[in-house]
């Protein structure tokens, strides 16, 4: 396998695995309820990779250089027995980090079990601290209480916790400071995410984006922030630290300051397709290829071929024309 790895033209360090495309929320920027209504057809179970299939592919990705795996969805904690998958992945030699991105609602039930299985960290999505606004954003009228309980459960279980806040102009930009203060008071790293044009159902417009610069300027009026050097090549978040603390604030600047040239991330969908960019329209099948009886080396060769064939720079090239005309996968399908 080492020889296949040597042929990769660019390092492949980071893998996101979506384990399910369903969700218990309908966040308006991700799964608008008008589109993901009661008749929406999600993937049937037979289409999903089994945990053993995910383990096998993850092992091969790690042999090709992946050091970090993040489980995502839809809502990953809706997939039955997720701690078992974490346990399988935690046995993979040379895999340095396993994380999970979740809306947090099911963490009180699973946080301890996930930590015991080998999970290191969770990113929990929370876009507002106001019940009414949060209920409107998540499309299910769920107040912030269940998410705050999930955050507490994750901290008590000893997991590293980061909070993801998608900021959309006129919707929740008034929550930039309350969220910063809540995270500072509770020793949580907050990451502000620029609203993105993932998929084609969330009605994205450039005018809806609150850029990192705008958020930073608002924060600077309230806090002293010191820039922090990236921890590793390709780190996506630009980080600052509240002066005199070890609490960071991060920005995911996918729209205003794209980072395609250092992108080392691949994504695996719940039905076993590999995507080399969040904004791809079509993935490359690994599931049926694997089910046809090929060996690990053949799978590694396929992954290498797909990765070497990539020339993705979507965020570098984003224009009104690409936003409107390009076929893209939905965020809930590929998991961010
Ligand atoms: N359900 C889980 C959750 O919400 O954390 C995991 C999947 S969700 C698709 C992953 C991340 O993508 C979340 O932090 C969510 O806020 C973010 N996200 C969804 N739609 C987005 C958009 N249009 N722009 C930016 N981030 C988005
Ligand atoms: Fe579900 Fe996460 Fe998308 Fe919200 S952001 S609808 S919680 S997948
Ligand atoms: Fe990577 Fe595509 Fe995002 Fe650029 S737009 S950073 S290539 S995922």
From TrEMBL:
Pathway: Cofactor biosynthesis; molybdopterin biosynthesis. One of its GO terms (molecular function) is 4 iron, 4 sulfur cluster binding. Its cofactor is [4Fe-4S] cluster. Residues 7-229 form the Radical SAM core domain. Binds 2 [4Fe-4S] clusters. Binds 1 [4Fe-4S] cluster coordinated with 3 cysteines and an exchangeable S-adenosyl-L-methionine and 1 [4Fe-4S] cluster coordinated with 3 cysteines and the GTP-derived substrate. The keyword Lyase applies. Its EC number is 4.1.99.22. [4Fe-4S] cluster 2 binds at residues 260, 263, 277. [4Fe-4S] cluster 1 binds at residues 23, 27, 30. S-adenosyl-L-methionine binds at residues 29, 74, 125, 196. Keywords: 4Fe-4S, GTP-binding, Iron, Iron-sulfur, Lyase, Metal-binding, Molybdenum cofactor biosynthesis, Nucleotide-binding, S-adenosyl-L-methionine. It comes from the Bacteria. GO terms for biological process: Mo-molybdopterin cofactor biosynthetic process. InterPro entries: Aldolase_TIM, Elp3/MiaA/NifB-like_rSAM, MoaA, MoaA-like, MoaA_NifB_PqqE_Fe-S-bd_CS, MoaA_twitch, MoCo_biosynth_MoaA/MoaC, rSAM. GTP binds at residues 16, 70, 101, 162, 265-267. It catalyses: GTP + AH2 + S-adenosyl-L-methionine = (8S)-3',8-cyclo-7,8-dihydroguanosine 5'-triphosphate + 5'-deoxyadenosine + L-methionine + A + H(+). The keyword GTP-binding applies. Belongs to the radical SAM superfamily. MoaA family. Monomer and homodimer. Catalyzes the cyclization of GTP to (8S)-3',8-cyclo-7,8-dihydroguanosine 5'-triphosphate. NCBIfam families: moaA. HAMAP family: MoaA_B. This is GTP 3',8-cyclase. It comes from Robertmurraya siralis.
